[in-house]
Here is the input.
Amino acid sequence: MNHPMNYKISDKFVGMKPSAIREIFKSLGTPGAISFSGGNPAPDSFPVKEFAAISAEILEKNPVAALQYSVTEGYPKLRELVADRLKTHFNIGAADDTTIITTGGQQAIELTCKVLCNEGDVVIAENPSFIGALNAFRSCGAKLVGVELEDDGISLEGLEAALKANPNTKMIYLIPTFQNPGGITTSLEKRKAVYELARKYDTLIFEDNPYGELRFAGEEVPTIKSMDTDGRVIYGGSFSKVLSAGMRIGFLCANEALVAKIVVAKQVEDVHTNIFFQMICAEYLSRYDMDTHIEEIRALYRHKAQLMLSCLEKELPSCVKFTKPEGGIFLWCTLPDGLDMNAFVKAAVAEKVFVVPGTAFNCDQDAPSQSFRLNYSMPSDDDIVKGTAILGRIIKDMLAKA
Amino acid sequence: MNHPMNYKISDKFVGMKPSAIREIFKSLGTPGAISFSGGNPAPDSFPVKEFAAISAEILEKNPVAALQYSVTEGYPKLRELVADRLKTHFNIGAADDTTIITTGGQQAIELTCKVLCNEGDVVIAENPSFIGALNAFRSCGAKLVGVELEDDGISLEGLEAALKANPNTKMIYLIPTFQNPGGITTSLEKRKAVYELARKYDTLIFEDNPYGELRFAGEEVPTIKSMDTDGRVIYGGSFSKVLSAGMRIGFLCANEALVAKIVVAKQVEDVHTNIFFQMICAEYLSRYDMDTHIEEIRALYRHKAQLMLSCLEKELPSCVKFTKPEGGIFLWCTLPDGLDMNAFVKAAVAEKVFVVPGTAFNCDQDAPSQSFRLNYSMPSDDDIVKGTAILGRIIKDMLAKA
Here is the structure.
């Protein structure tokens, strides 16, 4: 180069790092690798034949609509079907709420933060929480305040203290059902209490519910959005875990006044979401029995979760704690004090078993963690058995040397 | 509502309005409407049969890869094919450049601005320019400085004055080939001079080239990126105008150090672009003759542009000026002083002929305009004939009353 450039990156991005998970994702090509690190749905869960039939038909009968520019808010038929499903399955949708289609659930989170937060405004999140959301908040210049995640959801004392200490809180970001990474479900009592705290301190709630349909044990708990009489809750969802992750179709339901701004923000990001796949989703929802399809995924994940839990019970020393999720795709393991979590993760990688270090999910990127996240939806049964045995052996070796 | 919300929108979005074009787009369902307002490719230009064959094959042979999460940078085979095409067709791609896939060309623009600009940093653009880009810059909190667009490209005197006056200029945004909305192509001399000015004032250039393959008259002009020895030019392109707009696949080629940050920004926006359509694009580029396909689109647009130009010559009074594009999909008409452009656009809408008022493309949203944009790629021949006759009649009526 004649004149090597020194790029002046914006303050918000100069310190941003790629997601640890996305980076681990790239190593998965290694032959013999066992991955418990992704957030991928089971490959068996994609309705391939149905998608093939629908896409052939769309390209035969309605190709121009499927390949031409479309509206930012999303394919009208899909918006309607999603809104109906939210109403019937989750009791969501006030008269002045509206539902739009986003490029994955990720975009719904990022757009909402962007239209609400000025630099330095606060977003409160469960600690630990979903790295994609935390990074989105960071990219908007928001200040993250983490509140401890307890076995039945966010700490109410911690949440109230955070709200009191940060009057510029723009929203509370929560994954109340089958939390990522914790695998924890917030109790009904806590959901009600969180909503009341949001009212008391006049802030918004982003309820992220990408796993909500994937319950395989226990009782359904109403969404926070279903309790929303104020237009205070923005609800984000996704087809990534129930139809296809690669198609990038998510949705957002919130008060229409707020959504109008979110639509403007979406317009400048990507104009609209791939319309062909919006049409595929709409046709799938109209023609096939989504509930039966989801029931099959639930059965598959019930099996995989039970297998992983029984392997962990067998392989891990009892000083290692882990959550017992009633749905979703993750569980969360915590090593005893004195064992070095990062050394453990490195040792696992050396044996080609990939897990995500708990530090990746911390609101404070410099904070330590004793935990790591395991995914059970993606690995084969065989890999679950083999991989957990390797993890158990590594921990036992570390304990022996400690 | 118990407690109506007063949403506190971020400073960047509180004043943002939906794109005039996207809003006009919604009215196009009106029966009998003639639209010269969109930026839509001709419906005939989509390779429907080829896409149908490829998508059936992908869903038969490789469905999991097509429906599962993928990497943020894009489908490796598509990145390679795009990089090859940029090299062979545009002489683009230094050893330390890299090419990534984005969710339409729009996302490439928005991501680049986001990783470069702090609030108040300056982006210089041709005035008028593409509304989607201008709104993206606004949404990042950048300050827009418009420089007059002359018949052979941006005013060099204006550009140097703007660079001198704004030392915090982060980039110059240009559409040098078949500009939107002007339909103007920047001369080779001006491209070289712009690059030298960028060097002199040490700033970056975003060269947006969504229409570059659509030349139907005149001689090819080298891209600015092909002259880039510094890593100073970020090149954005798109398949929207040559394969399908609705699939939302664009790309960006720039120095790898800068692209690394852009990838982080993309990760938090949408994780990755629809992978199924990235695979379709890659297969299309591998199996079919893209050049022949594009030659057909060029022939179609040559015909449509000539038809519109001959109609305008016939229907419009000679006091109305319009550009004569050598490619792309737009031309730009300017009313004589004394005629009210907004009144003209409203009168046209009342007769169901949609054009975009020139004010929409101004860097300064409060500045007036005597111009309007016409699109010729989307309307049928019949609509071009009928619509231009209506526009001509309205202008003659207005002149008669003036």
